[in-house]
Amino acid sequence: MSSSVPVAALVGWMLVLTFKHIIADFVLQSSWMALGKDQKTGWALPLLAHCLVHLALSLALILIIAPRFWFVAFIDFAIHITVDRAKGLCSSTFDVTVENPWFWTLIGVDQALHHLTGFGLSIFMAAN
Predict the structure, then answer these.
(1) Taking a C-beta distance cutoff of 8 angstroms, is the pair 90, 106 a contact?
(2) How far is CA 125 from CA 6, 66, 108, in A?
(3) Domain residues of the chain, as ranges?
(4) pLDDT digit string (tens) for 68-115?
């Protein structure tokens, strides 16, 4: 991996992955996914469905732009499912609902981790 990263490519990938994240996390995530993935039981299917949406969008966009990076969509999927499961465990273990003062902090940390993932993947693709 190069020690320098082309800025235009980095910004381009960041825009693509941020757009993907907004669509997958907010537009295409149903209430069943959003609420279900944070439950004590029955979380697996809603979580998987949600993360498969991320995988499908990432894979489609990457295949259109730079097919040689197809595997990055699967890395994004693995990290996304891990982050969302960790958030779900915190939510269900500590009963973090909208009324809980930690709710928005947990959402913020979750979103920050997803954006840092996009940043890291963007650096990788831009440098290669």
Answers:
(1) yes
(2) 10, 9, 26
(3) 7-127
(4) 999 999 999 999 999 999 999 999 999 999 999 999 999 999 999 999
